[in-house]
């Protein structure tokens, strides 16, 4: 641009800025020629205020152009702030959205449940017999075998429930030593048994092995291995008790020892009273 045209434009801008009317692009294009005020030379002592100062002081704030410039400046500031937060690197551009949308996942720890073995179940069954816990013992039994006469290990009764009643009546006690697995169907348990009669006779608890039979994971029978318990218990304890009852209370003995008849309350009462009598008779001999 020539010095002449530059001087004309400066002069026109200065006059237009002194008005309150907004400056449009058409005003610039269609401006009339203005009288040129010579630009002072470098050696002149007269100083001129910078054009930028005059424009800043004289331009109206409500000018639309200024409003557009303000909006543009605000948008630029927002961009600069976002750029600063991401350090200007492209890979950081999505950090903010990733922080909001990414969720941490905690690894799921699955606990492995160890199924009890047949040995464990047989042990638990005998421990329930020791504690006199019929409910726990029956929980380990196959529901189809609950009323089976093969279920009770020993005692006067056709069912495990009846045998538990008889155990309580005659002061029966089991004591388990341990169980070992034979195969998938059988577990062998070493245990000893005693009651008020054997205690009165001074007979040590009689030890024997009982075989616990399984159907899958439930008990269906408890068998006296080789009838070893009965063969020791009968001559050393039971026969002495039965003989005493038969000699002293024969009518009651006929009811008590009729093993074809399942246990009932009358039989339980007779066992209870004659157990007391038998123990007292032996104590009187001391």
How does this structure look, described?
This protein has 12 helices and 4 strands, in the order ααααααααββαββααα. The chain has helices at 3-17, 25-29, 51-58, 64-85, 95-101, 118-131, 134-139, 160-170, 196-201, 228-248, 250-256, 265-284; strands at 173-181, 186-194, 206-215, 218-224. A 4-stranded antiparallel sheet has the order 1-2-3-4. Helix 11 packs across helix 12. The longest helix has 22 residues, at 64-85. It starts with a helix and ends with a helix. 16% of the residues are buried.
Main beta-sheet strand count, sense and barrel state: 4 strands, antiparallel
Alpha plus pi helix count: 12
Label the overall shape.
Answer: rod-shaped
Count of distinct strands: 4
Give the percentage of residues in beta strands. Answer: 5-15%
Low-pLDDT sequence parts:
33-37, 39-65, 67-72, 74-86, 88-104
Radius of gyration: 55 Å
User: N-to-C terminal Cα separation, in Å?
Assistant: 145 Å
Mean pLDDT: 78
Spatial arrangement of strands, main beta sheet: 1-2-3-4
Helix content: 40-55%
Secondary-structure content class: alpha+beta
Spell out the helices and strands N to C.
Answer: HHHHHHHHEEHEEHHH
């Amino acid at each position: 641009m020539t010095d002449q045209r530059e001087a004309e434009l400066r002069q026109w801008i200065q006059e237009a800025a002194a008005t309150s009317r907004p400056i449009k692009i058409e005003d610039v294009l269609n401006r009339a020629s203005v009288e040129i005020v010579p630009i002072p030379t470098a050696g002149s002592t007269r100083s001129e205020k910078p054009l930028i100062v005059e424009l800043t002081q004289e331009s109206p704030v409500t000018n639309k152009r200024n409003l557009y410039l303000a909006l543009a400046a605000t948008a630029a500031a927002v961009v600069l702030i976002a750029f600063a937060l991401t350090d200007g690197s492209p890979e950081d551009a999505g950090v903010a959205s990733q922080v909001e949308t990414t969720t941490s996942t905690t690894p799921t720890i699955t606990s492995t449940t160890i199924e009890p073995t047949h040995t464990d179940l047989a042990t638990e069954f005998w421990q329930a017999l020791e504690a006199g816990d019929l409910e726990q013992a029956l929980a380990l039994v196959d529901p189809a075998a609950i009323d089976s006469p093969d279920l009770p290990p020993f005692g006067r009764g056709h069912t495990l429930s009846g045998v538990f009643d008889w155990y309580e009546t005659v002061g029966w006690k089991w004591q388990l030593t341990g169980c070992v697995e034979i195969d998938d169907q059988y577990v062998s348990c070493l245990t000893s048994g005693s009651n008020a009669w054997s205690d009165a006779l001074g007979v040590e608890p009689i030890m024997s092995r009982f075989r616990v039979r399984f159907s899958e994971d439930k008990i269906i029978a408890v068998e006296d291995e080789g009838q070893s318990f009965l063969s020791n218990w009968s001559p050393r304890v039971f026969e002495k008790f039965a003989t005493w009852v038969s000699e002293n209370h024969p009518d009651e003995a006929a009811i008590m020892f009729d093993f074809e008849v399942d246990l009932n309350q009358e039989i339980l009462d007779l066992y209870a009273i004659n157990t007391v009598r038998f123990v007292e008779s032996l104590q009187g001999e001391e």
